[in-house]
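Sequence in, structure out. Go.
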Amino acid sequence: MTKAELVEKVAGQINLTKKQTEVVVNTVFQSITESLAQGKKVELRGFGSFRVRSRNARIGRNPKSGDRVDVPAKRVPFFKAGKELRELVDGELDISTDSSSE
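Output:
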């Protein structure tokens, strides 16, 4: 699913135009991005959590030449799916048993 498809689907569910819905979706993504950039954790119950993980510096190999390459330490975003999402993807839960509609 692309961001445009997500905007279209959300706009169909609520009483907002696609332009207004796009602002909402962009704001959510921007908030997640800013929190991760500050090193904060973002947790969305029933969906999953976003965190920043640190990777150590290491020696890699250039696949073309086989030469050694120094790979610097870095911080990378990491997503961990929540239990409900994992079960939905695995087919253990029926999508029609959505707990958020209660």
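Check: DSSP finds three helices and five strands in the chain. The longest helix spans residues 18-37.
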